Amino acid sequence: MLKLLMKEKIWQNFLSEIQLLITPFQFSTWFKNARISEITENSVTISVANSFVKEWLEKKYQKIILKTFKKFLPEIKEVKFEIRKNPNPVIESTFQKKLEILKRKQETNLNPKYTFSNFVVGNFNELSYAAATAVCENPGKIYNPFFVFSGVGLGKTHLLQAIGNKILELKENFQIRYFQTQNFVSKIIQAIKEKKIDEFRKNLEEIDVLIVDDVHFLAGKERTQEEFFYLFNILYEKNKQIVLSSDRPPREIPTLTERLKSRFEGGILVDIVPPEYESRLAILKMKAQEKNFEVEDKVLEFIAQNFKRNIRELEGALNYIYCRFKDRERSADKIILSLQKFLKEPKKVVNYKTVIKEVVDFYGITEKELLSNNRRKDLVKARQIASFLIREELNCSFVSIAKIFGGKDHTTIMYGYQKILKEKEKNEKLRQEIEYLKDRIFS
Ligand code: ADP
Ligand code: MG
To answer: 177: Cβ below 6 Å to ligand 1?
Structure first.
């Protein structure tokens, strides 16, 4: 009995620790139904519902699990997994099925939040949209490759992901993969290092839809271009759909090999230009609605008139007023005034003071608060983001950032930096806030 209680207690301890390190989604999928079945002086055995979970935990979570146990049981050297005895066979099989679907979705790397249903179509992007929907209806058959280009923040990633998500929905058996080019490059480099390039190739040759975002990052990466060319040809020959984006047309990507340029141009080439006023307004209305943010038309019109460069900037302005005004008394004039104020200020020299000023402005706190030792949650976050930006954008050392923040320990700064770096990957809102702040700092 005592032993049982102890196991439960340790497990609860473990859960509360690991929860901080992974997303709620990962937590509920992989850990909620697991238990400790045995614990010895230096090993823990975790029992799980089925082989799928077991395999997944072994492959992806072993290290982090061990590390987490070690935090409070330093003598633990090993974590083992086993399948729980007597699982309910019915539950087991539906659960298994659900997991298979989930696994299939996870493997695609697609983000379900980018769809056609929340993609506003206007003059500025209607050609790309039309071609993209045609691709979804007939993948591999009409436009191959599909190549879209535009400046930043105009919806390339959204469109590519929407294509992937749509095909995922329409074609149950299709294997789909979405890659950021940078990610694709590092996977290739890793595969080469580990001498697993054949395996890597084999896996990709089996897919039906290959989506690669921002291929301009292939510039200068010869070995990756070679690999990409090889893969492209194989998929193309098999009538598999290839979907690409870039910040410029293939011809203008420097140091892209001639043969890739001509491959990229061999299907359909579409571009997206900055949206016109009506589209900007329609986008703002939709984004406000998505957030359940009630805001007067006058404000949205003001934003649409003044933030013209791209959609990320529009979203940024909307996020700004959302964060600042959603829970407060707000008049349209007041909101507009706050936006106007920061439209006017031209910025030239960028140093840590610029960063601090923007962060303080954005989060509606004072500089004194930011630089204080107050541990209030919002202040800690603003501090971490400011340090993050100073580090990333100005390349300051952690020691000198610690000095800016009143002589804190530089490991605290480093910890905060890593936290933001990690969280940014998982938390779209945070990513947007940072992008937005960057825009402000450098514009
Ligand atoms: P890019 O990849 O071209 O830099 P993104 O696809 O990341 O641009 O778009 C930037 C932001 O604007 C994203 O949040 C995206 O959801 C939004 N967005 C882009 N195009 C549209 C659109 N047509 N309708 C609604 N939102 C859009
Ligand atoms: Mg993008």
So the answer is: no
In this structure, the answer to whether residues 249 and 164 fall within a common structural domain is yes
Kindly report the CATH number assigned to the domain that includes residue 318. Answer: 1.10.8.60
Q: Are residues 306 and 254 in the same domain?
A: no
User: Is 148 close to ligand 1, i.e. is its CB under 6 Å away?
Assistant: no
pLDDT 10s digits, 28-78: 888 888 999 999 989 999 999 888 788 889 988 999 999 999 999 999 999
Ligand closest to the CA atom of residue 148: 1
pTM above 0.85, yes or no: no
Span 345-387, pLDDT tens digits: 554 567 899 999 989 887 878 999 999 999 999 999 999 999 9
Q: Which of 336, 273, 358 is nearest to 309 (CA)?
A: 273
Q: How far is the CA of 240 from the centre of ligand 2 (A)?
A: 23
267 lines ligand 1 (CB under 6 A): no
Q: Best substitution site from 124, 126, 147, 158 to test ligand 1's pocket, by max atoms within 8 Å of Cβ?
A: 158
Q: Determine contact, residues 377/412, Cβ cutoff 8 Å.
A: no
